[in-house]
Amino acid sequence: MTDISPHLIVAPIILPLIAAALVTMIEQRPLRVAISIFTMAALLLISVTLLMSVASPLSADTIVYRVGNWAAPFGIVLVLDHLSAMMVALTSILALATLIFSLARWDRAGPRFHALFLLLLMGLNGAFLTGDLFNLFVFFEVMLAASYGLVLHGSGTARVKAGLHYIAINLGASILFLIGVSVIYGITGTLNMADLSERIQNVSQEQRVLFDAGFAVLGIAFLIKAGVWPLGFWLPPTYSATSAPAAAMFTIMTKVGVYATLRLMSLVFGIDDNTVMGIASPLLLIGGSLTILMSMAGMLAARTFSRIAGFSILTSSGTVLAVVGIGGERALSGALYYMISSTFAVAAFFLLIELMNRARGTTSEALGAPMFDDEYRDPYDDGPPTDEVGRITPVTVALIHGGFVFCALLLTGLPPLSGFIGKFAIMSGLADYAHLSGWVLIALLIVSSFAAIIAFLRIGVETIWGSAETIVPQVKSVEFAAIAGLLAMCVITTTHGAAVLDYTDRTVAALQRPGDYVSNVLLPNPPPLPTLEIPPQEVAP
Amino acid sequence: MEIVLSLAIGVLVASGVWLLFRPRTFQVIIGFSLISYAVTLFIFSVGGLRIGAPPILDPAVKDVSAYTDPLPQALVLTAIVINFAMTALFLVVLLASRGLTGTDHVDGQETTEQ
Lengths: 541, 114
Description:
The complex is a heterodimer. By secondary structure, chain A is an all-alpha fold. Chain A has 19 helices and two strands. Chain A has a domain at 274-364 and 391-513. Chain A has helices spanning 11-25, 29-55, 82-102, 113-129, 133-151, 157-188, 193-199, 205-226, 235-241, 244-269, 280-301, 305-326, 329-360, 394-412, 418-433, 436-466, 477-495, 497-512, 514-521, and strands spanning 63-66, 77-80. Mean pLDDT of chain A is 82; it is low at 363-392 and 529-533. Chain B has one domain (2-56, 66-101). By secondary structure, chain B is mainly α. In chain B, helix 1 runs antiparallel to helix 2 and helix 2 packs antiparallel against helix 3. The termini of chain B are far apart. Chain B is 64% helix and 0% strand. Classes of the chains: A mainly alpha, B mainly alpha. The interface between A and B is large, with 35 and 36 residues.
């Protein structure tokens, strides 16, 4: 499994793009579904292959794909390393499960669901794989444009209102992104991240101030995505207003902000063992800690499942960013583990919320009226649900509530599931660090877990035991399959915790040695150039 | 020239930010447009302002210093396209919001008069 075709790296970007183009042209729903499912399954296989190839000790840590075979600082590079392979695999698993869930009904609730979903995937994969700042911007925009469509999916006043705010905030973030990128380009003269990492050494002191300012502006754009306090207030309302599959998929979008921060921190400032470098680290620590505090308060105040889920996302990104701010190998490795587990758990929870709301009879999933003439509706999907669609047994209720308990255990970080292992790994890493900020963060994590337990217990008791009559919801088996798949991933990360933690250890080790990344991107072995005869251009050096 | 350009950028951003904080969706979208013009000019300026220097190689001119940096221009082009598309998309959502809520207030409801 060590010898993969280098072209495989570009597949997670190209494949969804082609499929999205195909899907928009096809009228028949079964064919559209087939293409989406096939693409998603292929992506899952590809991403697992990529993950295995990076994880195997025989292969290079960083595999670089030079698009068009142009040499690195001038051409576009895609870089596969431990971190990006992990994120792409995480995205693929999540996407397959979400897509399967949406087949039950959501993909018929509005136009072009499959195309938007595939484009979102392309943007996500591209953002994880690219080695170039401006391409990162472009892939961010692809991802955001698709997410604007998905956030409105299903229509309805609440979604449009939330979507309007979401789009406005992200347009602002994109503008900040552009400003940051152009300042960085103006000072270093490069947009390639590896080249940037080299050139930053030679920036003079007064230029460095300007560079830091540009980097800070860029960082704000990332932190808006990650939902850090005070930039994260848009997140819970948007995510609770949107449709379940979209919300589940958006859990990975906050991770893009975390990923970009981590990547650039590693390349520009360096994530050093126990030393806090650059301007960003204390800010990340403070921002992350305040995010945990805010989401704790939000969770205690929340009266609906979806708001609790929204604040769980904020807790997770706050935790990871605060740990990045402190640094420390083992804590960071634990944070990455925690990120994997919490992404699966929150996504599963979002999907489950839809079923639970159905069980409570809340019509939060009510579809809005069609907004455009070309919005197609499945003639069999509208109208009151009929008995033949779902299995109506109390088993359904038991399964839903069992799933809720699972999610609650994962998200509060109680043993025996992966949420506990993740938090424990972070805390043990922070305790090694033996510094006041580390202890404060440990205390904060424990208190926030406690708040989460209270919130989950209260809402769980209210809905599971409190309601006198339970409406048995209509649940299709694909919906259960999707949630079960995501929860099974959490169980696998628990039972194979050592392997996953070993992988994250190596990820962090690679992040601490950005030199490897840089030298791999900036060609140690010049790629064979095409033998095409090019007429000599008369250009002086 | 630098002064003129930076003043233009400053004025555009200032007006844009002011419009962004207004309660009407149309004002917000105009604000975004103004800011994105300013950002476009800003990206253009980071390559260094030159007069009469082409960005495209000419075989007759061998001195590299006679050219201006082509990359910011390419970036500007990309940024313009993306901003244009996003503005169009935002406009659609804005119209949908106007249709569904019956008001062009950004929160979808009028603030109650004191």
